[in-house]
Amino acid sequence: MTTDLERERNKVIAFLTESNLIEGIRQPPTDDQIEETIHFLRRGLLNLHDLCELALLFESRAVLRSSHGMDVMVGSYYPPRGGPQIERNLRLLLDLMMEGRGAPYDLHCRYEDLHPFMDGNGRTGRVLWAWMMIRRKGWDHTFALAFLHRWYYQSLDRRRDSKWET
Where do the domains of the chain lie? Predict the structure, then answer.
């Protein structure tokens, strides 16, 4: 018989595997990545230090872009220039997430637009999305569908909502 902890772990493994595939990473998540992600998702509060540690676990180049000159380009998108405002904006975004102000889809998009780390933003952003969803819907509902499946429907819902706001 599978325990709740084993089911939780299996859900996180499937989520991280899909998250890696989105990035073109074919290797399975490491035991450290699995355990730290579970620990992160169980947190009641988020803080910048824990997020930075999680990002480094996924990507050794995941340094917070808190100094001038730490600029990146993502495809044809130029995120805000590196500097102290990146850390300030990330802290504000984490506060919004903890307060439950804003839809997980919208907050995830803001995180990805900020692109606070030199690398590893997609994987940490998806874990942040899962953290928000768990608080709103619980573990079972959050992981009932694969990330991309759920993201697709949240995107459609958000698009439909904004269509009627004009």
Answer: 4-161
- pTM of the shown model: 0.91
| Euclidean distance between CA atoms 93 and 40, whole angstroms | 17
Residue among 115, 101, 126 nearest 20 (CA): 126
- Find all residues with CB under 8 Å of 41, minimum gap 6, and list them: 12, 127, 130, 131, 134
Q: Tens digit of pLDDT for each residue in 15-71? A: 999 999 999 999 999 999 999 999 999 999 999 999 999 999 999 999 999 999 999
Cβ atoms 121, 111 nearer than 8 A: yes
Tell the CATH topology of 4-161: Fic-like fold (1.10.3290)
Phi and psi at residue 19, to the nearest 5°: -60, -40
| In contact, 73 and 43? CB cutoff 8 Å | no
The one-letter code for the residue type at 156 is L
Closest by CA position to 147, among listed 3, 17, 2:
17
Tokens of 145: 């569908």
